Amino acid sequence: MAATLIDGKAAAASLRERLAHVAGFFRASTGRPAALATVLVGEDPASAVYIRSKRSATAEAGMESLHHALPADTSQAELLALIERLNADPAVDGILVQLPLPSQMDAALVISAIDPDKDVDGFHVVNAGRLAVGDPAALVPCTPLGCLHLLKATLGDLSGRHAVVIGRSNIVGKPMAMLLLSESCTVTIAHSRTRDLPEVCRSAGILVAAVGRPEMVRGDWIKPGACVIDVGINRVPANEPGKTRLVGDVAFAEATEVAGAITPVPGGVGPMTIAMLLRNTLVAAHRRAGLQAPEGL
Ligand SMILES: Nc1nc(=O)c2c([nH]1)NC[C@@H]1CN(c3ccc(C(=O)N[C@@H](CCC(=O)O)C(=O)O)cc3)C=[N+]21
């Protein structure tokens, strides 16, 4: 029996529709749109594509997209000066500095310069700390937030389930584990050094793969009926010469024969990441305006 396909594209579309209503409410109550400032340094083509989708999603939801494109040879001091201006600008609710940054920049230092209450990526150590201690003021990284949304939509209450997260990055693995813990899951964080990784994965009712290795998770690593969330977005050579295709961290064709439900790549977690960026921007905007954000946003 093939697994249920978790349609992230559809879930993201319906979330974005709801967010557009909230954005309209915000605009009507404050007389200004919620605004997201994006910063792109250099011309990495993949980053340019991602920024374009984020900007068009922002505008489509009735929010303002303020973009700053800086040349690849921008100094760190210049970037920090821009962040200071955006921090001080009352019309800016969210600041996103697209990663990766060019090599002359220290990404951790740049992120630490962002006002935590405008840090809609949730990458600032203050937001990581807030998430870790369960402070509702936390802005939570968009990708794990999107994964959690899909898990709850698929499974309902997650409490007591065993979740295995493969990957320990600050952007996905660690915050994902924190979110699952806050939902009362039993959480295992596995990684490249984990002994008997397939066996650990086989114990998971919820398996989140965020390692960045194409199709690493095989069908026989999956517990029958498990819910599998594939965070990987890996570009690999396609059958046709010169062409590429996207695959996840999970070998989809094998996994779908075993899992109860699974996200595809593309069309799974990726679209949810962008929807959650809009969500975080609206949350930040409401807080900054002293307004109560709608329940369940
Ligand atoms: N400061 C910062 N914040 C980020 O959130 C951030 C970043 N930097 N750097 C790059 C990564 C990557 N990322 C994605 C967002 C959407 C899709 C997405 O929508 N993917 C589609 C299609 C992808 C395609 O066709 O290439 C899908 O999975 O269906 C993917 C990846 C956000 N990132």
From TrEMBL:
<keyword id="KW-0554">One-carbon metabolism</keyword>
<feature type="domain" description="Tetrahydrofolate dehydrogenase/cyclohydrolase catalytic">
    <location>
        <begin position="6"/>
        <end position="121"/>
    </location>
</feature>
<dbReference type="InterPro" id="IPR036291">
    <property type="entry name" value="NAD(P)-bd_dom_sf"/>
</dbReference>
<keyword id="KW-0521">NADP</keyword>
<comment type="similarity">
    <text>Belongs to the tetrahydrofolate dehydrogenase/cyclohydrolase family.</text>
</comment>
<feature type="domain" description="Tetrahydrofolate dehydrogenase/cyclohydrolase NAD(P)-binding">
    <location>
        <begin position="141"/>
        <end position="288"/>
    </location>
</feature>
<dbReference type="InterPro" id="IPR000672">
    <property type="entry name" value="THF_DH/CycHdrlase"/>
</dbReference>
<dbReference type="InterPro" id="IPR020867">
    <property type="entry name" value="THF_DH/CycHdrlase_CS"/>
</dbReference>
<comment type="pathway">
    <text>One-carbon metabolism; tetrahydrofolate interconversion.</text>
</comment>
<dbReference type="Pfam" id="PF02882">
    <property type="entry name" value="THF_DHG_CYH_C"/>
</dbReference>
<keyword id="KW-0560">Oxidoreductase</keyword>
<feature type="binding site">
    <location>
        <position position="233"/>
    </location>
    <ligand>
        <name>NADP(+)</name>
    </ligand>
</feature>
<keyword id="KW-0511">Multifunctional enzyme</keyword>
<keyword id="KW-0368">Histidine biosynthesis</keyword>
<protein>
    <recommendedName>
        <fullName>Bifunctional protein FolD</fullName>
        <ecNumber>1.5.1.5</ecNumber>
        <ecNumber>3.5.4.9</ecNumber>
    </recommendedName>
</protein>
<comment type="function">
    <text>Catalyzes the oxidation of 5,10-methylenetetrahydrofolate to 5,10-methenyltetrahydrofolate and then the hydrolysis of 5,10-methenyltetrahydrofolate to 10-formyltetrahydrofolate.</text>
</comment>
<dbReference type="InterPro" id="IPR020631">
    <property type="entry name" value="THF_DH/CycHdrlase_NAD-bd_dom"/>
</dbReference>
<keyword id="KW-0378">Hydrolase</keyword>
<dbReference type="InterPro" id="IPR020630">
    <property type="entry name" value="THF_DH/CycHdrlase_cat_dom"/>
</dbReference>
<keyword id="KW-0658">Purine biosynthesis</keyword>
<keyword id="KW-0028">Amino-acid biosynthesis</keyword>
<dbReference type="InterPro" id="IPR046346">
    <property type="entry name" value="Aminoacid_DH-like_N_sf"/>
</dbReference>
<dbReference type="Pfam" id="PF00763">
    <property type="entry name" value="THF_DHG_CYH"/>
</dbReference>
<feature type="binding site">
    <location>
        <begin position="167"/>
        <end position="169"/>
    </location>
    <ligand>
        <name>NADP(+)</name>
    </ligand>
</feature>
<keyword id="KW-0486">Methionine biosynthesis</keyword>
<comment type="subunit">
    <text>Homodimer.</text>
</comment>
